[in-house]
Amino acid sequence: MAVCLQVVGLMLGVASWCLASSCTSSQLWRVRIHLQVCRALMILSLMLGLTSTIVSVLGLKCTKIGRISESAKEKMALTGGLLFILSGVFSLSAVSWYASRIIHEFHDPLYGGVRFELGTGLYFGWASAGMAILGGSMLCSSCRKTTPLPSARQFSYSLSPTTGGEQIYRAAPPSQSSSKAAYV
């Protein structure tokens, strides 16, 4: 199940990267100061998406590259998922900010410029943001913490070179609340 979740998450992340790149290169944007900030956010989203794709591929359970331990692979998949989510947030904020400006100018009666409508590039951007966030969430949810919880009664073993012998520490028996002797 975890492998399938990772593969689907990676596929969604790669598809979102393709949509974000087509959204960024689209000529259906206007040139304004806030537009340049939106494009910068989209370029950051693309760079994060490419990085997260590489990290996620290396962290998938179904890929075998070198002698990477399973815990390191899970950390890489988790990092890739978080980068996909961050990429989606950057893309979503850029596209939504630009769309809000378009809608505001369209409904402003005092605006004297050309009134634009929402174009297909914005819809590609929203789709890519949603897919990146969903794919990153799938990658993150496929990684579970597998460290065992410590039991209540553990035993420890210590070899001390100064005493010249081995020391075994055993857990103390549970104390009685009605006992008059208290050990510190």
Write the layout of secondary structure elements.
Layout: H1 2-24, H2 33-59, H3 70-107, H4 120-141, E1 156-160, E2 165-169
Antiparallel strand pairs: 1-2
Subcellular location: Cell junction, Tight junction; Cell membrane
Protein name: Claudin
Keywords: Cell junction, Cell membrane, Membrane, Signal, Tight junction, Transmembrane, Transmembrane helix
Describe the structure in your own words.
- The chain is mainly α and 184 residues long.
- Helix content is 60%, strand content 5%.
- A two-stranded antiparallel sheet has the order 1-2.
- A hairpin with a 4-residue loop joins strand 1 (156-160) and strand 2.
- The relative contact order is 0.18.
- This is Claudin.
- Its main location: other.
- Residues 1-20 form the signal peptide.
- It is a multi-pass membrane protein.
